[in-house]
Each structure stands twice: as C-alpha cells, then as structure tokens.
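User: Could you check the structure of this?
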Amino acid sequence: MARLSASWFTTTILTLSLSPAPVVLAQQQQQQPEATWSQEDMGRIVKQVRSKLGSLTNFGVFDWITFGVHGKTLVLNGYASRPILKDDAGNAVKHIEGIQKVENEIQVLPLSTFDDRIRAQVYNRIYTQPALSKYNANQGSLARAMGPGGSSFGMMGGGITNNPPIGYHAIHIIVNNGRVTLYGVVLNQSDADIAYIQANGTPAVFGVQNDLVVEGAAPGKPPR
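Assistant: Sure, the predicted structure tokens are below.
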C-alpha cells in the first residue's frame, strides 16, 4: 500500500499562485508593474513560507491555508477553525526577508457546536475507511475523532474543534455552517470519490464540495 510522508504533505498542501498586480504611479500617469522578487529570492521565500506555515503546531485537519504573491506582498488565504491560527500564520511569515507586507485574508470559521459535531462525524467517516487510513499518520480512530475520553462529552465547549486530531492529514475537512469542503491531495480518483461519499453521507450535512486533487492530474481538473 502506498504511504505518504509528512514532507510530501507539507509541500503539497501549501499551494502557490503567482498573480503580479499592476499599480498606478500618479506622477507618471501610466501603469508600471510592481517590483517583484528575483527568481532566486522567489524560490527561497516560497520554501521559507511553506516551512513556516507547515510547522504551525495548531494547523490541523480542520484548517486549510494557501498563499500567493502580489509584487512583494504575500497574501494568505484559506480557512481557520480557530482564530489563533490566523494570527499565528500571519506572524510566522511576516519577518521573512524580502516580504514587504502580509495581507492576511484567512477566513476564521464561526464557532458552532453544530459544525463541531459535523467535523467529528465527517472525520470519523473518512479516516476510519481502510482505503483512506494511509492519509493519516494516526490511522484514524473513533475515540480520537470524538475528542478527550472518546465520548460525545468531548465535543462540548468547542470539542474536536479546540482539540483536533493530531498528526498530519492529507485530506482536510472544512466545515462552515453545515457545509463541507474537502481539500488536499490524494493518490487516485477512487480515494477522492470515497472521501466525498463518506462526507456526503454524514447526517445533517447541507452539502459537500469536493476540491481534492489527484496527484499528477492536470491542473484545474475537477474531481468526478
């Protein structure tokens, strides 16, 4: 059975989009491109940003972070299940040499007992599937998904959201007001389909968006 390393995961989940934006210089009354990093600096900065974000101890299976650049501005996007992650992500990258500004557009998800229960249920349904256990270093477990003590009481007071499963997870579960989006990279389309079916079959889920990417697939190709 193919297995995934933490380094593979860290490199894959933190995606980069390059979108240089023009600015208007009033004194010249014409568009000029923003200053950008050299190719060497770009490679260094991307590597450092990935390392900083990937090493955040509170970045877990219920969060998703991407980043891009506009000129010499780093733009953070994605979702944080806890407010502290948004702040920590911004602080982690703002002192990297060459970055002039950080625009932190990570969306903090609402604190909700309803969403918390869905996170636990979807996590359990996905990561206890034999075909998908390889995407979790801990192999998934009902007790870990349910929180401390392995009981529903662990979901009270923030539950699994405040005490998420530890270790790397290649399939990330974003829950926002009962709607689920799956992010990450899987080895084949069958695994993406299984994850979607399990999430979509979870009681009380209003809808599921499957944004899982199959490794090696053409960019922009949506899952079936």
